[in-house]
Specification:
Blueprint: H1 3-28, E1 35-42, H2 48-55, H3 58-61, E2 64-71, H4 74-82, E3 88-91, H5 93-101, E4 107-115, E5 119-123, E6 139-142, H6 147-158, E7 167-170, H7 176-181, E8 187-191, H8 194-202, E9 206-208, E10 216-222, H9 231-242, H10 251-260, H11 265-274, E11 281-282, H12 284-296, H13 313-318, E12 323-324
Parallel strand pairs: 1-2, 1-3, 6-7, 6-8, 11-12
Antiparallel strand pairs: 3-10, 4-10, 5-8, 5-9
Helix pairs in contact: 2-9, 5-12, 10-11
């Protein structure tokens, strides 16, 4: 074949191939630098979706290089954002409320899960504790400034025990086994997986709980200006992609997730069955934050505008049906 005949055809083919590659590159973000996001989260089952998206490389599919920083509590994770050590955190409503009361400027982008039947008080039977009334005069450890502290107060009030008669001391959840078995405290109040760990270590533990008293949401939080980077949109889109898979995990993925969440396989299975994994933002979160502030800060609860801490922008862009906020 004459080279003058096939050369134009070859050039045309290369042009078409180049266009296809360029379109594919733009569509899938290939070649674009990934945006680094430092995501602080607690090692607990409500973080399962966060970890699964990392295992599946789903964040990268949305243009993000997410670097997960694990902490014992959501309060610690939020503190990482406040001190500039992380960009984004997952946290329950109580530490968020305390931070807003303290004057921190934060945005709650979405609630990505809710825990039921997670909080309880585990007590030593040899300290004469059999029922809620027996907690009067006893020492109970709980992580200060967390949902467990709120649950402890609610629990005592519900059963007619004056909280002033109980000595509440601060403690780290991963230290509770030692605090209780050594006799340093009479009981602890904490959430899973730490609660289950304490129960097993104590052996003859007395477990006190009331499921209707308290539930907590797992909230995606950052500084307000972080929303302008587009990273929150990408995180939410990644979570929406993997959340359905939490119901159909194979054995290997379930084992790896249990490890990352700090749970045994059996404990993790219980959490998957009882926790509510969904992504939404409801105006009720502002009312919940205000309600806790009203109780803990009777002279200051009205100072902050908790509604202004809810920013539905990113979630509305990703899935408007998940938003029930009018502002």
């Amino acid at each position: 074949m004459n080279s003058r005949r096939w050369l134009p055809a070859m050039i045309a083919i290369l042009v078409v191939v180049g266009i296809v590659v360029a379109v594919t590159t733009v569509r899938h973000g290939v070649g674009r630098p990934l945006r680094i996001v430092r995501l602080a989260t607690a090692t607990q089952p409500l973080s399962a979706g966060i970890f699964l998206a990392d295992m599946r490389d789903t964040y990268r599919a949305h243009g993000l290089d997410v670097r997960i920083q694990s902490y014992t509590t959501g309060k610690d994770a939020l503190n990482a954002v406040i001190t500039g050590e992380a960009d984004l955190a997952t946290v329950a409503q109580t530490p968020l409320m305390h931070a807003v009361i303290a004057g921190e400027h934060l945005s709650a982008w979405a609630v990505i899960g809710e825990a039921y039947q997670a909080q309880r008080i585990i007590a030593r039977a040899d300290r004469g504790i059999r029922e809620p009334a027996d907690l009067a005069g006893k020492t109970v450890a709980t992580p200060r400034g967390t949902t467990a502290q709120i649950f402890a107060w609610n629990f005592l009030s519900y059963y007619g025990v004056d909280p002033a008669t109980v000595t509440l001391v601060d403690g780290a959840p991963d230290a509770f086994v030692g605090m209780l078995t050594s006799g340093q405290v009479d009981a602890v109040c904490v959430w899973d997986p730490y609660a289950l760990g304490v129960e097993r270590a104590l052996g003859d533990a007395v477990v006190l709980t009331q499921d209707s008293l308290y539930q907590f949401g797992w909230i995606l939080v950052s500084r307000p200006e972080f929303g302008a980077t587009g990273s929150v949109d990408g995180i939410l889109a990644a979570l929406f992609s993997v959340y359905p898979d939490l119901l159909t995990l194979d054995k290997a993925d379930k084992a790896e997730l249990a490890r990352r969440c700090g749970s045994s396989l059996d404990e993790f299975a219980v959490s998957l069955a009882t926790y509510h994994y969904s992504i939404e933002l409801d105006a009720g979160l502002a009312a919940l934050l205000e309600g806790e502030a009203r109780r803990l800060y009777p002279d200051r609860w009205a100072d902050p505008d908790f509604a202004s801490a809810l920013d539905a922008g990113p979630l509305r862009r990703v899935d408007a049906s998940a938003v029930a906020v009018d502002w």
